[in-house]
Amino acid sequence: MKLIKTEDAVGHVLCHDITQIIKGVTKDAVFRKGHIVTEEDIPVLLSVGKENLYVWEKEEGMLHENDAAEILRQICQGEHMHPSDVKEGKIELIADIDGVLKIEREKLRKVNSLGEIMIASRHGDFPVKKGDKLAGTRVIPLVISEEKMQQAKDVTAGGAIFNILPYKKKKAGIVTTGSEVYYHRIKDTFTPVIEEKLAEYDIEIGGHEICNDDPQMIENAIRSLLADGCDMIVCTGGMSVDPDDRTPYAIRQVTGEIVSYGAPVLPGAMFLLAYYREEGKEVIPVLGLPGCVMYSKRTIFDLVLPRLTVGEILTAEDLNTLGEGGLCLNCPECTFPNCGFGKGGTR
């Protein structure tokens, strides 16, 4: 930076804040670091006692913080989001739609490891709403080397760090199992809970079958709902390890494979995930929900449902990484998703 007369500063970039103090009225920066001085600014600067100013002296191979911030925005901003205006090397990203935030975590870590630039975001793999703040970026020094920003671009080559996956219109089939419900010995209190959860993501109910504990009956019910065009199947009941709990067997008969029977999440340890695959058609998730989904405020179902609704194909590894953060603390006042539940190990 260099020191010049204030009258000669038009077009130059300030290297420091200019503070105005009026007793009993204000004490604040009238101009911020990084401000480009205009002709109209000169009388104001002189009025606060600034006869001389430290301004940025452009150097070969160096970028002003705002120019570098624009590069940082380019490597961060993916689909369905927009940036705020740049200010003092800072830009924020704002969601344009409801959906699930996806983060290239390794890219994020590597960029933050470069130094002099930073990116802070909300947790990925969780729902966001239109207007939500997704991430904040900052170039820390007033000037930064072009080489450093090129390193950031190299790290993120091939795609942005952040993207939002939009929800897809889904039609779910519900299979309620259990002889006690089928023979009307008890009231079905599970299905209303599932309907409420599905409604959070505007998922249409495409059919509802009630079965006893006969695995063939359960299998037939699943196949019937698939034939009716359901692109998600949710099975409730019969998910424990008791000998007469046959829902997992029926699901396996339909899908041929189970991605995971069990997940490191409480509530939700007995959760089952499978996929029905038919050549030329979209993969259909088939879920087995344990009883805890019926009586616990938030469970494994709340962690996986949004991701399935945007069309993600979850793997066993995706579920395994939920262990850290997978313990719901059953707080007296539930603040999910603004809590630690489900926000665990990186992937």
TrEMBL record:
Enzyme class: transferase
Stored InterPro entries: MoaB/Mog-like_dom_sf, MoaB/Mog_dom, MoeA-like
Protein keywords: Magnesium, Metal-binding, Molybdenum, Molybdenum cofactor biosynthesis, Transferase
Cofactor: Mg(2+)
Catalytic activity: adenylyl-molybdopterin + molybdate = Mo-molybdopterin + AMP + H(+)
Homology family: Belongs to the MoeA family.
Protein source organism: Dorea hominis
Thylakoid is among the record's keywords: no
Pathway in which the depicted protein is active: Cofactor biosynthesis; molybdopterin biosynthesis
SMART domains: MoCF_biosynth (SM00852)
Residue span(s) of domain MoaB/Mog: 173-310
Listed EC numbers: 2.10.1.1
Alphabetized Gene3D superfamilies for the sequence: MoaB/Mog-like domain (3.40.980.10), Molybdopterin biosynthesis moea protein, domain 2 (3.90.105.10)
Purpose of the protein: Catalyzes the insertion of molybdate into adenylated molybdopterin with the concomitant release of AMP.
Entry protein name: Molybdopterin molybdenumtransferase
